[in-house]
Specification:
Blueprint: H1 32-49, H2 60-80, H3 88-105, H4 124-146, H5 161-212, H6 216-260
Amino acid sequence: MAAPAKIDPMGQFAIHPIGSDQLTASPFQFTNSSLWMMVVLAAVLLFMWGGLQRKLVPGRWQASVELLTGFVDNITRQSNGAEGRKYMPWVFTAFVFILLSNWIGAMPFGIVPGAHPFTVTSQFSVTGVMSVISFSIVLAVGFWKHGLHFFSLFVPKDAPLILKFFIAPVEFVSFMVRPFSLGLRPFVAMFAGHVLLEVFGNFIVQGLNAGMGGSALGWFIGVLCFVFVVGVNALELLVGGIQAYVFALLTALYINDAVNLH
C-alpha cells in the first residue's frame, strides 16, 4: 500500500531556477518568480494595448482600460487634488501590477501538466520593494517641496509644547513603519489564502481517495472541502482586488501627507 502523500503547503512559495530545484550562487538565474513576473508584465502590456486604440466609440476592451485608469485617477485626485495627476503613473503601475499578480496567481493553471502557477505578491521581497518605492517617492516629494520643514509632519501644530516631545517620537516611529506595513498587507493576504487553498486542496484529494476506497465519509469530506475551496478562491479574487486598491489608496494618502504636511 502506497504511503499517503505529504502535505507541503509551503512548497508553493519556493523559488527555484526554471528546469532545476536548486538555486546556485550565481545571481543570473531565471526563476519561477521571474517567469511569472514576466507573465504579469505581458498581461499588463496586453491589457493596456487595448486602451491605446482611442476610438471615438470605444469597444469593451478600450472601455475597460479607460474605466480602470479613471478609477485610479479618481483615487489620486481625491487624495491629492489636481496635483494628484503628477503621481498617477506610479499609483496606477502599483495598482495594476498587484491586481493582476493576485488574480493571475489565483487562476487554476495547475490543471495543465507541467504548469506551476506562482503568485509573485506572496513574496515579501516583491511587495516590500514596491512599498519602499512608494516611501521613497513620499520622502522625495516631502523634502523637495518643504526642505527640512518636512520634519514638522511629526509635530502637531496646535499641541502644547510639553506634549510635542512625547508625540514627535511616536509620530516618527509610526511614519517609519509605513513602508513595512504597506508591503506586509498584500503579502500576508496572498500568503495566507494560498496556504488555505493548498491544505484544503490536499483534503479534497485524500477525501476522494478514501471515497473510492469505499468510505462514504471520504466522499462527504472531499465534496465539502471542494465547496470550501471554491469559496476561498472567490474570496481570493475579492481580496486581491481590495489589496491592490488599499495599496494604491495608502500610497496616494502618504504622498498627500508629504505634500500638505497633514
